[in-house]
């Protein structure tokens, strides 16, 4: 074999070892015992929303059906004509006996309009313990109880959750859910074996209001792309711990088309690259199928390259079946046949993330600075108009 063949062999072996380690990390995490809790402090769940992807009603309904003594839910929307308003109003009618509230507030405190939304609705929170959860998440009735359990320990400043993906339907959604389950989830759990947790995941963030006040509130991360991770870093800088809950929430993936999926995953990739440039670069060598195919295309050792390709395709197929069984998610051979497409796309997006500093988010093109801060680059005008509007001019109101 030539020198380049030996390099490809080393990369494919490394990718195989990583694949095994990632799968074992998921199995270990899912099988570990849940935290027991006796305290049930009153909780306010904050739900920043934008638009309705067809799954929103059922997603939000699960947060209204919690098996918990006292749990308020506040829905935040930036525009009164947003499609999510009608969905929330239906919930207000269906759960008249629950403490639900809809807040419409277009105040912008920074370039990250999601965080502006959260900052607007947290002012309406009635309880000391708050949970922030995205609108595309779906949970079980034991979610709140599981998430607040670690906060019994006063040394814990923030609790976060991982998430698994479920496709709402269509090729784009299927590929999106595959990325979450087969790449993001194993990588996140494997990384926890290498270093302590100093970041959070936007699927769920739970903390005390006092912790938010100490770190400067959500205003402290209002211009950051990776707001969840920066928030966790501010918490750990105060000597408090970030804890990963045993609970895995469900991310309902409802991507309308492949173009939308591409720009969403490119934004995620550039976020990860910005947070950990060194480790993210090393992650390029964990993609066994693409590297095997590249070896087959440019190497001279055809036999070993064919063996590596066959091994990685077989391993990915068997490993994903084991992974989905572990997560109690259904899968099919049709989805398994998409593994080469999914892996090639993941690798290509990872490479593209190193070329450029712009991301697309909710119709806006944003430039990401070296410090992770966002700035409008080219947009439909909504973000720029919101940033020009002063807090005095912003509209704030409740709809019931």
Describe the structure.
The chain has 400 residues and is α/β, with parallel strands linked by helices. It has a domain at 34-258: Spore Coat Polysaccharide Biosynthesis Protein SpsA, Chain A. Helices cover 48% and strands 19% of the residues. The protein has helices spanning 3-31, 56-64, 83-94, 113-122, 143-148, 171-192, 209-215, 227-237, 258-275, 277-283, 288-298, 302-326, 333-336, 339-352, 382-388, and strands at residues 43-49, 71-77, 100-105, 129-133, 137-138, 156-167, 204-208, 241-253, 358-361, 364-368, 374-378, 396-399. The strands form two sheets. It has a nine-stranded mixed β-sheet with strand order 5-8-6-7-4-1-2-3-12, with helices on both faces. Helix 6 (171-192) packs parallel to helix 9 (258-275). The longest helix is centred in the N-terminal third of the chain and has 29 residues, at 3-31. It is globular and about 70 Å long. The termini are far apart. The relative contact order is 0.16. Residues 390-400 have low confidence and may be disordered.
CATH class of the domain at 34-258: Alpha Beta
The major beta sheet can be summarized as: 9 strands, mixed
Estimated share of beta-strand residues: 15-25%
Name of the CATH homologous superfamily of the domain at 34-258: Spore Coat Polysaccharide Biosynthesis Protein SpsA, Chain A
What is CATH's topology name of the domain at 34-258?
Spore Coat Polysaccharide Biosynthesis Protein SpsA, Chain A
What's the overall average pLDDT, rounded?
Answer: 89
What is the gyration radius calculated from CA atoms?
22 Å
Gap between N and C termini = 71 Å
Order of helices and strands: HEHEHEHEEHEHEHHEHHHHHHEEEHE
Helix content: 40-55%
Which structural class best describes the helix and strand composition?
alpha/beta
Q: Got a strand count?
A: 12
Q: Give start-end ranges of low-pLDDT stretches.
A: 390-400
CATH architecture of the domain at 34-258: Alpha-Beta Complex
Number of helical segments?
15
Adjacency order of strands in the biggest sheet: 5-8-6-7-4-1-2-3-12
